[in-house]
Amino acid sequence: MSLDELVCLREPSRWLLRADGDSLQGIGIYDGDVLVVDKALEPLDGDIVVVVIGADFCCKEYRERLGKLDCPRHRRHLQPML
Prior knowledge:
Layout: H1 3-7, E1 14-18, E2 34-38, E3 48-53, E4 56-61, E5 63-65, E6 68-70
Antiparallel strand pairs: 1-2, 3-4, 5-6
């Protein structure tokens, strides 16, 4: 079975993204991992989402707390983004 068949990459809302960095190692996403992104899905609490910060794409954990978006960091030495 091909990767295309496995994750239905022919859907126009799905694409691949290579992880770059170590901020999500705490939840099992490592530098160089290939992620399948589906922009048609609405994020749920705890999902990994792709956000645009400036000209960069970043993968973050989506947390909805008290009606606000929270993107916690998974490395102890880093502060939360929002």
